[in-house]
Write a structure and sequence with these properties.
mainly alpha; three-stranded mixed beta sheet; 10 helices; disordered N terminus
């Protein structure tokens, strides 16, 4: 109960941090273009939430990912609890979230959390190449397609099929 109570009534400093991160997550979600995360080291807690909000994740071999919220006695508030299970499956998400353990880049790739693993010195170059590939698409189409995928992700298959027709 203390965990839930702390979540409902965050102290002013925590509330400001929560609101700021909400703004970051919303900015990524509402971006008119796809967003790429390049993860060189550890991404845990808020860092994992930001990375998972992105459309693509490129990781170095040293990247590690974790949901450490339960270890520090708080609940996530930035979509991590929902996005993680949708990306890697509910059982794997529960294991990560309930233990706070890290997974390495290879496991993250195997589980579908990251798109690519590249040497650390090639992270930005790879992200730019991916962005350049997307720039070759018709901009309005890319924007609409991103919205279609994101909107459909939260729908049943039948609803998503109807969304495609609109």
């Amino acid at each position: 109960n203390a965990l839930i109570e702390r979540r409902r009534l965050p102290e002013p400093k925590r509330r400001k941090k929560v609101e700021l991160l909400h703004d970051v997550i919303r900015a990524i979600r509402d971006s008119p273009v796809p967003v790429i995360a390049a993860v060189k080291g550890g991404a845990a807690g808020a860092g994992a939430s930001i990375a998972l909000a992105c459309d693509f994740l490129i990781a170095s071999p040293n990247a590690r990912f974790a949901d450490t919220h339960a270890r520090v006695g708080i609940l996530p508030g930035w979509g991590l609890s929902q996005k993680l299970s949708r990306l890697i499956g509910i059982s794997r998400a529960k294991e990560l979230s309930f233990t706070g353990n890290f997974i390495d880049a290879d496991t993250a790739l195997e589980w579908g959390l990251v798109n690519h693993i590249v040497p650390a010195d090639q992270l930005i170059e790879t992200a730019k190449k991916l962005a350049d590939d997307m720039r070759s698409c018709e901009p309005a189409s890319l924007k609409a397609y991103r919205k279609l995928i994101n909107d459909g992700y939260a729908q049943t298959f039948g609803e998503a099929m109807e969304t495609e027709l609109q």
